[in-house]
Amino acid sequence: MYDVSTRKQALALVAQGRSLNSASRETGISRAAIRSWQQRLEPLPRMAPPDPGPPADEQAYAYLLGLYLGDGCISAHPRSGYYLRIACADAWPGLMQLCREAITKVRPSIGVYSLQKEGYTMVTSYSRHWPHLFPQHGPGKKHERTIALEPWQQAIVDAHPWEFIRGLVHSDGCRITNWTTRLIAGERKRYEYPRYFFTNLSGDIIGLFTATLDRVGVEWRQANARNISIARKASVALMDTHVGPKH
Q1: Which of 75, 76, 167, 227 is deepest in the core (most CB within 10 A)?
Q2: CA distances to 177, 226, 244 from 229, in Å
Q3: Which domain holds residue 32?
């Protein structure tokens, strides 16, 4: 027989998204026992934790908000609570680490783990309160519904605009090197120049991105309905200073 606190510990690990195998290894309790506790008709009584309030680290939140709007989603747990999931390409391990660190700084008391998918990793965290921190959560795809920041979110973005821009670029943007040829002293030579692109299907999210670029003095142009280009030398230099390429 296991006491109540032991059962709560094992069930809490599973509620955070840990597998039965992982919870069993950490607690020394068999998978069968943990599964039976999950399936009980009268589960152990528990009180919902209080809303922890605003982000613990606003700078980290501005970055995480950019990642969420680009490649994130929130989904309900079958029993209670929510998963925050940020899709990170396996080509950018540094981005995955930054994402994990941002989640931990925003909510220091909760766990973060990774789920490997084909070609990308889903950085995931469980909490009852993710929809409070990301009120843009809702049914359907982001580009098919209105995306607008709450006043408190806008205040954080205004205070940390570069972190917000960096999160958006790290999710749905890139830094590339373009090239062209020029005739110099009668000889055609190759000329290379860097530029940034941001691509998103949501006009609202593009609007949030470009409005923040305006705020920090970055010149941009809309290449088409879903692509923003930053190519002017001074603006690229600003982006290199505060954003930089993914790694």
Answers
A1: 167
A2: 12, 10, 15
A3: 4-37
